[in-house]
């Protein structure tokens, strides 16, 4: 491991941006492309939103932990909550599936995360919480030669 960080915060929607900024700042040392930064920000936003809305049912007193590591040019990020857990992970991964249709949720969170990550793993235990882990290989920007 070349570097590591851990951030823990309350499950409040205003902390979603904190998680995004922390992860992208951590990634900055690898000189990622704008697209790679955007994709990782989106994955973090989706995972944190899922923890807040689904894991904790908008209870702002729950805790979310973001743990990031860097191995060479690969970033690995785990977003963990200690909420209600996911009853059926395969069903939750299906496009357009949502447990909160009354909140106008699109049901595309896991689909979006999977499309942007090189690897995505979902671990969940009912009554104990969920951990979403993703990895992303970073391709450093090349300096312009004139």
Highest CATH level, the class: Alpha Beta
Please name the CATH topology.
Heat Shock Protein 90
**Overall mean pLDDT score?**
90
Distance between the termini: 36 Å
Based on Cα principal axes, name the global outline.
globular
Poorly predicted sequence stretches spanning 5 or more consecutive residues: none
Helix content: 25-40%
Q: Name the helix and strand elements from N-terminus to C-terminus, one letter apiece.
A: EHHEEHHEE
| Secondary-structure content class | alpha+beta
Number of strands: 5
**Count of discrete structural domains:** 1
- Share of β-strand residues: 25-35%
Spell out the CATH superfamily.
Histidine kinase-like ATPase, C-terminal domain
- Whole-number radius of gyration? 15 Å
Tally of separate helices: 4
CATH architecture annotation name: 2-Layer Sandwich
Major sheet details: 5 strands, antiparallel
Question: Strand order across the biggest sheet?
Answer: 1-2-3-5-4
GO molecular function, one term: protein serine/threonine kinase activity
Domain Histidine kinase/HSP90-like ATPase: 35-140
Keywords: ATP-binding, Kinase, Nucleotide-binding, Serine/threonine-protein kinase, Sporulation, Transferase
Enzyme class: transferase
Structure in words:
The chain is of the alpha+beta class. It has a single domain, classed as Histidine kinase-like ATPase, C-terminal domain (Heat Shock Protein 90, 2-Layer Sandwich). It is about 30% helix and about 30% strand. It is built from four helices and five strands. The protein has helices at about 15-25, 35-55, 90, 110-115, and strands at about 5-10, 65-70, 75-80, 120-125, 130-135. A hairpin with a 3-residue loop joins strand 4 and strand 5 (about 130-135). Helix 2 packs antiparallel against helix 4. It is globular and about 40 Å long. The N and C termini lie far apart (about 35 Å). The mean pLDDT is about 90.
């Amino acid at each position: 491991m070349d570097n590591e960080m851990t951030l823990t915060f309350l499950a409040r929607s205003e902390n979603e941006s904190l998680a995004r900024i922390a992860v992208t700042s951590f990634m900055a040392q690898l000189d990622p492309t704008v697209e790679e930064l955007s994709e990782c920000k989106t994955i973090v936003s989706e995972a944190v939103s899922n923890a807040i809305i689904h894991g904790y049912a908008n209870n702002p007193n729950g805790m979310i932990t973001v743990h990031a590591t860097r191995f060479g040019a690969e970033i690995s990020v785990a977003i963990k909550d200690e909420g209600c857990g996911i009853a059926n992970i395969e069903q939750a991964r299906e496009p357009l599936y949502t447990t909160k249709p009354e909140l106008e949720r699109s049901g595309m969170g896991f689909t979006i995360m999977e499309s942007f990550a090189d690897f995505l793993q979902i671990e969940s235990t009912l009554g104990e919480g969920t951990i979403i882990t993703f990895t992303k290989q970073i391709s450093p920007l090349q300096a312009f030669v004139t």
